[in-house]
Amino acid sequence: MVIEIVIYAAVSSAIYAMLAVGFTLIFGVARVLNLSHGTFYALGAYFTYTYNGLLKLPLFVAALLAIATVAAFGVAIERVMVRPLRHSGLAVLMITLAMSLLIEQVLFLTFGSETQNVPSLVSDKVTVFDVDISGQRLLAFGVSVVLISGLWLFIQRTRLGNAILAVSQDAEGAQYMGININRVFASVMGLSAALAAAAGVLAAPFSKVEPGMGLLPMTKAFSIVILGGLGSIRGSLLAAIVLGFSETLVGYLISSSLTELVSLVVILLVLILRPAGLFGKHVAF
Q1: Is residue 149 part of a domain?
Q2: How wide is the angle at C-alpha 195 spanned by C-alphas 232 and 154, nearest 5°?
Q3: C-alpha to C-alpha distance for 8 and 10, rounded to whole angstroms
Q4: How large is the angle between the packed helices 181-203 and 2-30, nearest 10 degrees?
Q5: Among candidates 80, 63, 281, 66, which has minimal Cα distance to 186?
């Protein structure tokens, strides 16, 4: 049972990490809390369903196209809604929350309240240390590791990545150096949306695809960034592991109905004991 707990906890942690890293990235660079982040997760799953189930595109193509569509949608939200209000953190909170609620209603009116079925990219089961686990879960873990590693390399090795890093450290100074901060903010929003959408695409085959599916991932991401420290990618990764393993242990040893309480308990304990989180700071990297 120990091996089974470790495997399933690792998969959960990987999904949470993709959600939290994107959420932390936009805060660490643009200094805004995007409450529509869970919506990107839901849209990733729904666009995959639409492109594959309704338009009959190959599943792999549908998944990639879904991620690209959500990334473009994230950029559009930043340019049309977030950018004019970026000077006010409260205004950004309200507009992104309103956008999240609006999209949830659009999904409800378009697809109904019933759960949609998204097929697995890998349908076979794999035996790992005598534990049978679906290939889709292993794929989710592997892709998560690759995407997060790729994001780190992108930030560290590319010109745009260096601009993102500079803005996260000192936006005003970066602007004086000739960096287009609006382009950086839009790029970061697109990256954040793409990561959340990828998490939704990968998790959709083994989770419920329904209009309200973005709320719980948003809660998880918020819990993780509070535990890890707002703006800290390293903290978010560590917190995702802590939350993933904690929920899996509670589910296996106590009751699966209590797993959703773990993230709420984490928020309360951290706010009481260590408000800055594990690695709280003001830059993303």
Answers
A1: yes
A2: 70
A3: 5
A4: 160
A5: 80
133, β-bridge pairs: 126
DSSP letters for 191-252: HHHHHHHHHHHHHGGGS-B-TTTTHHHHHHHHHHHHHH-TT-HHHHHHHHHHHHHHHHHHHH
Number of domains in the chain: 1
Per-residue pLDDT of the chain (285 residues; tens, 9 = 90+): 677 788 888 888 889 899 888 888 888 887 888 888 999 999 999 999 999 988 999 999 999 999 999 999 999 999 999 888 888 878 888 999 999 999 999 999 999 888 888 888 887 777 777 777 788 888 999 999 999 999 989 988 899 988 988 888 888 888 888 889 899 999 999 999 999 999 999 999 888 899 989 888 888 888 888 887 776 788 888 888 888 888 888 888 787 777 777 777 877 777 777 766 666 554 444
Question: In terms of residue numbers, what domain contains 109?
Answer: 12-212
Q: What global pTM score does this model have?
A: 0.88
Please indicate, yes or no, if residue 142 is contained in any of the structural domains: yes
Is residue 129 one of the residues assigned to a domain?
A: yes
Q: For residue 196, is it within any domain?
A: yes
- How far is residue 242 CA from its own chain's centroid? 16
Strand boundaries in the chain, DSSP class E: 125-128, 131-134
Residue 90 near residue 204, CB atoms below 8 Å:
no
